[in-house]
Amino acid sequence: MKRFLRNSIVLSVGIITLLYGLDFIYTNVYENSFPRNKTQHILNLEEGEKLDYVFLGSSRVENSIVSREIENITGKRTINLGTQGAKLDDINIFLRLLIEKNVKIEKLFIQVDYIFNHESSSDIVRSQALPYIKTNSVIKEYLKRVDSNYFKNYYLPFYRYAKNDYRLGFREFIASLVNKKSKIDFNDGFVPLFGVINKNDFGGSELPQSILKSNKSLKEIDSLCKMNKIDVIYFCAPFCSRLKTNDYLMKLKEKLPNFKDFSSSIPSDSLFQNCSHLNKNGAEVFSKLLIESLSL
Amino acid sequence: MLFNSFTFFVFFSIVFLCYWFALKDKTKSQNIFILASSYIFYGWWDWRFLGLIALSTLVDYYLGKLISKELNTIRKKILLAISIIFNVGLLCYFKYYNFFIDNWVDAWQSIGFESNISSLNIILPVGISFYTFQTMSYTIDVYRNKIKHSNSLINFAAFVAFFPQLVAGPIERASHLLPQFSIKRVFNYDQAVSGFYLIVWGLFKKIVIADTCATYVNTIFDNYENMNSLSLLLGAVYFAFQIYGDFSGYSDIAIGISRLLGFDIMMNFNKPYFSRNIAEFWRRWHISLSTWFRDYVYIPLGGSIGTPVGKVRNVFIIFLISGFWHGANWTFVFWGLLNAVYFLPLLLLNKNRKYLNNVSISFNLSGLMNIINMFITFFLVVTTWVFFRSKTITEAFAYLKRFISDLNFTNQYLSIERYAIEALILVSFFILVEWFSRNYEHPFLGKYKTIYLTFIIFLIIVLGVYSEHSDFIYFQF
């Protein structure tokens, strides 16, 4: 028995050492590799960099704003930092990271729709931020607030990478290690969708019937912009024609006085990939429409 | 409480230390402790079903006693029948009641009648199919005078609820496991180490192989209408390794934990995908269930002795029951039927016991034939798994039809942001390791075993799927 216990202890110590070693290696690779997601891209921006137009939001920004098109027409440096699944809390952290980097933003565009009703954060952004939990104070504070596994992620070696294996696991680690470039050009940030809306996608698309009294993250975003003298514009990206709105956007307009509603600005459903997302052609049309409507 | 969870690690560490230190050399106390631990382990899922295990234990314990003491053959048979009806009744109520009701209603509706019977909201108690079969084997063996009835309710209750194999087997025989509760257990270093090796290998099979395959399987099966032939083929192959890794991984961990507590429980899998025909596959797959059906259903029916019609009948009965045992769905019944169809020619041609030796490959015609037979058998098994995995029989046929008709074998990019072929590297590595250790229960052998062990632990940490805590597949049965 003594021999068995002794070997068990040796093995346990070996496993713990291995976990610390792996944690160290993974963290270093993620911190020093070529950016493979938008969180990493922001962290890799140069201190004090100037960005004229910054778009923040969910996939409804990521797939709808053709930064290059805006840049070509207006001559202004434009970046699309929309991220799949992002909620207002995630937009909040992106903005904080941009401010921390002293990025000069002329105009900030934030897409708000039903995400106003969500006070949670996105798994995707949360996992993208995890490698920096110990090295970036903004991310540390953000995760402390939104991550129910914060203490495990912070203190248990390798836990954050194992638990998020789908996004930070071995496969992503190897891709980062060999500096495999992402399919997305982060200097632009636009991710086009192809194809046309399927007839079946029309059914059941509707906005919530009720609206939250207020959204804490949005309030924080607003005050951050005021503090840092950033001109912020809230807008809603287009939806397809069959969407049941339930007057949600009217209610949202009451809460956000400078809210620009583009929800029905694209009448042709052939420009949609699904009811909430424009396809590539739709995104180009919408980007031009934004330039005209907002006098960019 | 899953074997692959931190909760179980803490639970078992406490059990192990108390068992070997505080209760050392106190067999009775150890048995009480095992019983209490097993009830905690089971109650962790749903404490309400503890009463069911306790009831099943009490009924079969006392019936076993009565059967043993009864001299009148008819009364003995009646007592046995009560035990069987009780256990099968439990299974039928909890597992099949809604299935029968739904089919009854559908049958009447199909001929234009309305039936007022409605299904109930019944939760399936975890492991009920396993422990009812285990207790039934006890009363049958007592009836057959193969074993003596148990004189200790504690020992018998611990045998029924023994936590390493309570929820997903192996389905132990009373003749093998029950006597082990009566003898003094002494810690054996070699036994404990072999148990530890099995636990590590079982975790690798489950967390690395099965759970990785599961991510591909779920994507492919859920979107089979949009998949090409290569993806559909890979989906079925990945499921073959998912279910094997999942179930044999569980069994390995169960055997390993038992060994750490000084018990020996039966092997449940013996490298089934290296079988050279379906009959050999069934001697190597879920051995504890196959042998249970063989001993308690197939042989009493006449087995492979008798007229060809009788043989055919027996084979179909055994495979249909086996399919139905897995779940209340026609897909499982069809899965059993398909296995019977594959098995039958071997039985009728007297080739069902052709491959009793361990598989080997030599550089001659016989070696080549072995490889070809293994591929054919694996392909047949994979087709049956399509029915096992699909939600309905129609869906399974549509899956196979699309595989045959599409004939596009390009590597497809899946919605999980991975190429369909990617998991093949892992599966190939697993097949190679299994092949080179095919005559042993785990691959940690020879003078480099410590290096192999370290490497596998490293792979469990680095390649394991921890984001989705998936249950073992056989928990649903």
Automatic annotation (TrEMBL), chain A:
The name of this protein is: DUF1574 domain-containing protein
Q: Which organism is it from?
A: Pseudotamlana haliotis
UniProtKB/TrEMBL annotation, chain B:
Q: Which residues form a coiled coil?
A: none
Q: Name one GO cellular component term.
A: plasma membrane
Origin: domain of life: Bacteria
Q: Which Pfam families does this UniProt record tie to the protein?
A: MBOAT
- Single GO MF descriptor: acyltransferase activity
- List all membrane-crossing ranges: 6-22, 51-67, 79-97, 117-133, 153-171, 191-209, 230-247, 327-349, 361-388, 419-437, 449-467
- Keyword field: Acyltransferase, Cell membrane, Membrane, Transferase, Transmembrane, Transmembrane helix
Q: Extract one GO BP annotation from the record.
A: alginic acid biosynthetic process
- Membrane topology term: Multi-pass membrane protein
Subcellular compartments: Cell membrane
Its main subcellular localisation, reduced to a broad class, is: membrane
Return the similarity comment: Belongs to the membrane-bound acyltransferase family.
PANTHER family the UniProt entry points to: ACYLTRANSFERASE, PROTEIN-CYSTEINE N-PALMITOYLTRANSFERASE RASP
Q: What is this protein called?
A: MBOAT family protein
Which organism is the protein's source? Answer: Pseudotamlana haliotis
Q: List the lineage, top down.
A: Bacteria, Pseudomonadati, Bacteroidota, Flavobacteriia, Flavobacteriales
